[in-house]
Amino acid sequence: MHEPYWLQQDDLSFPDPELALKEPNGLLAIGGDLSLERLRVAYSLGIFPWYESGQPILWWSPNPRMVLFPDELHVSKSLKKLISKNIYKVSFNLNFPSVILACANQRSKNRNGTWITDEMQQAYINLHNAGWAHSVEVWDDKKLVGGLYGIAMGKTFFGESMFSKQDNASKIAFINLVKKLQNQNFKLIDCQVSNPHLARLGAREIKRESFLKHIKADLNLNSKTEFSAQEY
Is 53 a residue whose pLDDT tops 90? Predict the structure, then answer.
């Protein structure tokens, strides 16, 4: 079995994702940086960074890959009932920094550490400021109680993380995201690795090969999706 590839600072290229190690999350490469340009190249190849404080940057390409095809969204009767009560307000891109910070804090609390390090937060804020990364916020009155963030490229949305401070708040964020993406004719939402909560919403695993074919067909590195700051 080969070792993960070491990336060079002055070279934005990645090895073929199919060369990722045959272990649960598909470790592919180590090193490099979190520059906007490198992150865009990585996502275009179905690769994402995931590492903890004190580790070098680790790059992954899981097999299988968990995805949601927007038309396969499943909303339970109980969730539909909750949404119909209009308890929460949902917005897009109103407060990206607070969403990614809340995601980091939730994971730190649950795992005694988080992969959403300060360096990662700033990298994705840079992507957001450049128009590539987007957030969904769920509000109870003026309190931020749930949300998610990810990257939109071409007709694929690469989900990164979500958080919930009240029951079902992150699911409401996800459902509203999917509805928005449906309206914009998105073809795929990347959920990265198996997640039982997203499985209940219709997400499923597909082979890496199939995933890469989907994103290659739908990807346009120069195509930004309009996610203007707004209430839903």
Answer: no
